[in-house]
Amino acid sequence: MAEFKDRGSRFLAYAFPISSTDDFKKRLKELKEEHAKAVHHCFAYRIGTDGNNLPAGRQVFRSSDDGEPSGSAGRPILGQIDSKELVNVAIIVVRYFGGTLLGVPGLINAYKTAASFALQLNPIVKKPVLINYRLQFDYTILNDVMRIIKKNDCVILRQELQLFCMIEASIPGSQLELCILQLKSLKSMELSAI
Q1: Distance (Å, rounded) from C-alpha 162 to C-alpha 113?
Q2: Helix 74-83 vs helix 103-121: angle between axes, to the nearest 10 degrees?
Q3: I want to staple 40 with a disulfide (CB 3.0 to 4.6 A). Which of 17, 95, 112, 191 is the partner?
Q4: Are 127 and 19 in contact (CB under 8 A)?
Q5: Residue in 149, 173, 175, 177 with CA at minimum distance from that of residue 161
Q6: What is the set of domains in the chain, with CATH numbers?
Q7: Nearest in space to 104 (alpha carbons), one of 112, 116, 114, 96
C-alpha cells in the first residue's frame, strides 16, 4: 500500500496481481469493506496475453472514476499500468476527502502519483507468455515429442499416454513458431490451440 496526500485528502493505493475479473472483484469488495468511510474507490486493471484465460494476444482492461469527474481517476491509474507495460495487475486507489476540492488537474496528479507509488513499492514479476496447445499423436513418436517439449521450455499441463497419446502443454510465446514447426514435422501429429 502506498499513500499520497494533497490538501487534506488521502489517497491509499493498492497494487496486486490478478488473473481474472473475479479476482479483481474479490479484492475490490475487501477494500470497500476495509475502507467503508472512504469517499471513492477508483481503479484500473489489465488482464491478458497469458493464453490461459483469453485467446493469445487479447487483453481485457477497465478503469473507473467511482464518482470523480470523468477521466480524472481511472484513466491516470490505467496509464501507470500501461507505462510499465504490465498485465494481470490491478490498482485500487481509495480516497478519503480532506475538505478541499482539487479540481480535475489536481485529481489526475493525485491518482497518477498514488498509483505510481504503489507500483514502485511492489516487485514486478516477469513471466513468459504461455499459449496452450493440445498435441495428439501416435505413441511411437513420444520420445521425439518429449524432446521438443523439453527443448522449447514447454510446460505439460495434462497428458494421457496410451497407444494414441494426448498432451496439453503451454508453449512460451517466444518459442511458439519454432516449437510448432518442429512438432508439425513429426508424422501423425495433430495440433490445436486450446
Answers
A1: 57
A2: 40
A3: 95
A4: no
A5: 149
A6: 2-121 (3.30.230.30), 130-193 (3.30.70.260)
A7: 112
66-125: pLDDT as tens digits: 999 999 999 999 999 999 989 999 999 999 999 999 999 999 999 999 999 999 999 888
Q: Which three cell numbers stand for residue 83?
A: 507505462
Q: How confident is the model at residue 167 (pLDDT cuts 50, 70, 90)?
A: very high
Amino acid at 95: R
Beta-bridge partner residues of 2: 13
> Quick one: which of 22, 16, 37, 23 has its CA closest to 94?
37
What pLDDT, in 10s, does the model give residues 116-164? 999 999 988 888 778 899 999 999 999 999 999 999 999 999 999 999 9
C-alpha cell at 104: 480535475
Residues facing residue 139 across a β-bridge: none
Beta strands in the chain (DSSP E): 2-6, 9-17, 40-48, 59-64, 89-96, 130-138, 155-160, 164-172, 190-193
Query: Please, are residues 144 and 188 in contact by the beta-carbon 8 Å criterion?
Result: no
